[in-house]
Amino acid sequence: MLRKLNVAEARETLLKRASLDEVEVSPVVLERTAGLLGEPLSPEQAVTRILKDVRQRGDTALREWMQKLDGVTLNTFRVPKEDIQSALQTLSDAQLNALRLAAERIRRFHQAQPLTSWLTQSLGGTLGQLVRPIRRVGVYVPAGSAPLPSSVLMSVIPAQVAGVPEIVVVAPPVRQTGKVDPVILAACALCGVDEVYALGGAQAIAALAYGTESIPPVDKIFGPGNLFVTLAKKQVFGVVGIDGLAGPTETMVIADDSANPEWVAADLLAQAEHDPLASAILLTPSESLIAQVQEAVTRQLRERQRATIIQQSLEFRSGAVLTIDLEEAVRIANEFAPEHLCLSVRDPWALVPKINAAGGIFVGEHSFEVLGDYVAGPSHVMPTGRTARFASPLNVWDFVHLIHLVALDEATTQEIAPAASVIAEREGLDAHAFSARCRC
Prior knowledge:
Blueprint: E1 4-6, H1 7-11, H2 27-37, H3 43-70, H4 81-86, H5 93-111, E2 118-120, E3 126-133, E4 136-140, H6 149-162, E5 166-171, H7 182-191, E6 196-198, H8 201-210, E7 220-222, H9 227-236, E8 241-242, E9 250-255, H10 261-272, E10 279-284, H11 287-301, H12 307-316, E11 319-322, H13 326-336, E12 340-344, H14 348-351, E13 360-363, H15 369-374, E14 400-407, H16 410-426, H17 430-437
Parallel strand pairs: 1-11, 4-5, 4-7, 5-6, 7-8, 9-10, 9-12, 10-11, 12-13
Antiparallel strand pairs: 2-3, 3-14
């Protein structure tokens, strides 16, 4: 059942935000961690141990941690190129065509994003900005309760558009087979990625960050994962770049009485099935819509395969919030800064200018969030945990870095060097001041 709350109740419950450091870890996870590591460690302490071990002992540590944590024994981690290509044969024609359609739309969307180097002579000599692709990146593809080929497309294709020459994919092997799920390999094949490693968890992040005997390190790591993966990315930041720290997925729907309650319910359930910690929140001034959506949720839930996961999300992290009007709904949405914000109202474009904090805005009921997950075009990797206040969805700029160019002429140097000397002297940096003066 989808809970109904007023705004005050919602602010004390499902609208509350917790930082990564405040995430409550279930006793089951703590007990399992203690059993595997031989002592009661927090997830952060466990990750620190894994990272240090892989950094010091390389492939040997990777094998031991994979056996201990995943129950998988591998002699080599790299997936053979022929296995990647042959994975395409495991897909039905419909599946292959759907992935091709998604890949085409994702590529065309990101090709429209300009990457511009520029030079100017307006300040004397030449100054400018050079855009350079990152040399080597790693993409983590989660494969827990559901393998996600879409995550391959959504991360790899923007990197290719940006011109990244080396793209590495890591994905956890399936326990029963010891191999990466073929649908993930098929997505890699569609993108032309042939460097894939059967690795998951914090140990995979360690391998990407520090490198091992068989895995060269990368310069930046992308992709969501579980708590241990996220903590590992946090700890290796600085050694390598990271795209961000992904939390549980979230969607927020602003709706009025014109919304189709069946569609609203379907959108909420689609988000809730990701994870028990996923958030699916409806904001509306219409009590009748809430009642209709509650009824539709109850009915649709009986038919969903992942009903247990959905029910947990609905019970703890989701709900319907009755607002005074749409203006209040927008204010709440901006405060919450959701990953996905869906506008199911009569005039959705009227609300768009008022939204200033969201990973993605889905305008109208025909632009539902599931399309964004797969085939709309923009990357589905979006900021979570209220980071949409300052962070952006994954895009081609994440895969490049800027180099500033300074090539001043002699006249300009003569003109501005005295000012540099004055500032340096005030800062107490005598050598700086002298370096500027001796050019005058």
